[in-house]
Amino acid sequence: MSNLKKALFLGFLALLTASIVVLGNLVTGNPVVAQQGSLSFLTTKQPSLYYQAATELNEVLKNSGFNLAIKEGSPGSFQNLIEIGNGRSDMAFAQQDAFYLLRNTGDKDVAKLAENIQIFAPVSSETIHLIVNTSSGIKNFADLKGKNVAVGLENSGTYVSAIFLYQLHNLDVTQESLVPMDIKESIAKVSKGELDAAFYTAGLGTPLLKNISAKDGSTLKLLPINQQEFTIPQQSYAKGSVLYTPQIIPANIYPWQKTPVSTVASNSFIFVKRSLDPKQIYDLAKASYSRASQLRKKDAFWKLFSITEAKSPRFNGIDYHLGVKNFLKEISDRRR
């Protein structure tokens, strides 16, 4: 990537993140105020997978002494992180790529918010769905050049993933026709041919796509995303690590998708406010992980939520909250 293009990219992201900070209060309303003994949990609006998962977590915790004050309405991962960083929420789901962007944006005030955020637990691997109209003529990612493409709302995880993937394919986001838009609306427009394509980053089997019938989805298909087609190494952004890992979307997981499709995914986590009391977070970790199997049975979204995964080598170096570190250390000491 040329220095000029990288500067343009970072400047573009700085404008995005600065606008999110200014508009944050308008997006989520008043701060989520948790009652004593509870924690506020910001999520996207129904019927999203984030909202469903937050509700599932609250359900399994109901006899543990914890109650999650769920506040819906955030557009997604990036706004969730902004709200935790600003101290307006205690907990939220968010993608790895969104947190990377928050830490490395060109806006120093925004990047500083990341210092207020730590990780509670790995949860899932969120799939990047690239949905195109069957008559669009789009056969690979490079064909998106010059097309009208919906990229989710500006402060969502979908938006972040789309921007990064354009860059990894060496497509200049400042020159492309990227349309910020609600996911449900954008898919409807792709189906009608009013847009060429739409991105959607969500857990595999997301209800929004599952609820599209084979008939209603007859003009839709998923476009493959192949890491071998990246023209810029992921390490250019992630300092030696990768932002995205390969994933297969199985055939028939959505009624309108009859064949398997290769794509990429970003890990997602539960993030928490750094200033939360370590004893409270220790107790929450103990209560949550003891019910992890219940959550995994409820939905595949929770596939990474286990003590084994939390301690696995792929998550070495994760900045867990002190309360979580104490809990995981206690588990390790018991097993010696």
Would you give an account of this structure?
It holds the Pfam family NMT1_3. It comes from Tolypothrix bouteillei VB521301. With about 325 residues, the protein is of the alpha/beta class. The chain is built from 13 helices and ten strands. The chain has helices spanning about 5-30, 50-60, 75-85, 95-105, 110-115, 155-170, 185-190, 205-210, 235-240, 280-290, 290-300, 305-310, 320-335; strands at about 40-45, 65-75, 90-95, 115-135, 150, 175-180, 195-205, 220, 245-250, 260-275. Helix 10 (about 280-290) crosses helix 13 (about 320-335). The model is unreliable at about 1-10 and about 15-35 (pLDDT under 50).
Give keywords:
alpha/beta, 336 residues, 2 domains, D-Maltodextrin-Binding Protein, domain 2, TRAP_TAXI, globular, 21% strand, 10-stranded mixed sheet, single chain, 38% helix, 10 strands, disordered N terminus, TAXI family TRAP transporter solute-binding subunit
Helix and strand topology:
Layout: H1 3-28, E1 38-44, H2 49-60, E2 67-74, H3 77-85, E3 91-95, H4 96-104, H5 108-113, E4 117-133, E5 148-150, H6 157-168, E6 177-179, H7 183-192, E7 197-203, H8 207-210, E8 220-222, H9 235-238, E9 245-249, E10 261-273, H10 278-289, H11 292-298, H12 307-310, H13 322-335
Parallel strand pairs: 1-2, 1-3, 5-6, 5-7
Antiparallel strand pairs: 3-10, 4-7, 4-8, 4-10, 9-10
Helix pairs in contact: 3-4, 10-13
